[in-house]
């Protein structure tokens, strides 16, 4: 027994709250609801001025769902499901934010959320068995539990280009977009980046900008979204079908309405294969990515078939053969990186007011007071948009000074790659519970959020019922889960590619090497593992 174990637990009077939640996005909002149901005093600290998380910060033009709206919202309250009507099959950001505001009002969440409150540090103290959370303004709060609800894509990164601060025009990262409407009419606009955010931004800005110049370092495979309004008849059918919709999400590999086809690519004739690809390409949503042949992401030859198909589609849609080739990825196969869904994105490059610059062939040397200088030319702009993504999965954790027992820093603990237990606990960081930590199941994120919040809440209930105040993952459990995560990644083409899903970000120091930062198994398998831990009385955890 360590000396710290002999010290008495803190009394409730020593705590400001039972639990502090970091972040008021979907996971923080739902966790607050569950904490109240447990009778625990919870406080949510949120850096923004209101609820919404991803949908609060990402206000850029074109931002919207790429999973079906009715599969995305909260499922825990039948009344909420019936009173909210989605207007489109893939809702735009303003509508999603209205939905989350509605949730906050319906459950009176704001009274326990402190806005404009960015967490700077969270330190665990074993002498009183709790966490001290310090905000950027210096104020401190103590709680027994620290629950992180900070998301997997919430730490935006700017490119490492000299002169960014010198630009005299307007400039924003897409995840720090102004609340006021931006008018691109008559403006010379630059967009740096062609990932999922860049694709959505580009196809909107191109409609009104006097001229749009796109700086592309790595082209991405994209597929049509096929969005449309939801008719009144469809609305009624959706609301009557919610039990089946969410049951389907529970059954599929990644909680979308789509799941891999059981056939192999070469188990059908070339004609059948082409017809299947055409059907997927003409269908809405992620079906072409997560509903394709079962071997698309494991067999290089199978992946080459779908890559060639989509390349042909790009050549058909882009009139200039030179531009079409610039837009076809050469360093990764279809679906091996996060797939952007688009609406007439490729047709943008047929417009006279759009220019595409290959940032590999002619790198950006610096941002100037009037625009951008590459190795070949100098451009003048009124607006620069940085669609340069996020320090994903662990980045939001790295930006908070999180220290566990004996002052160990989480960032240092994870310096060689994240190690967790089920993506929710970390050895050496007692009473820290992560709702979307690295190595948790992703996919259709709200489905993962609801499950993880409920698992954490059940653990807290178990601790209440048994007079327990401290929980930590056993080292052997962490090792077993980490080994399992690595085994799930074996043989997947995704992990042979540099992307945020493999922990690579060229704009972040120390993140140029691939790691197993993401759980690649199925959501049902993930839940089965977590359910088994709870059913056996949490034997993998040290509870006292």
Automatic annotation (TrEMBL):
Pfam family, one: Pyr_redox_3
Keywords on record: FAD, Flavoprotein, NADP, Oxidoreductase
Cross-referenced Gene3D superfamilies: FAD/NAD(P)-binding domain (3.50.50.60)
Domain of life per record: Bacteria
Name by which UniProt lists this protein: NAD(P)/FAD-dependent oxidoreductase
Source organism of this protein record: Belnapia mucosa
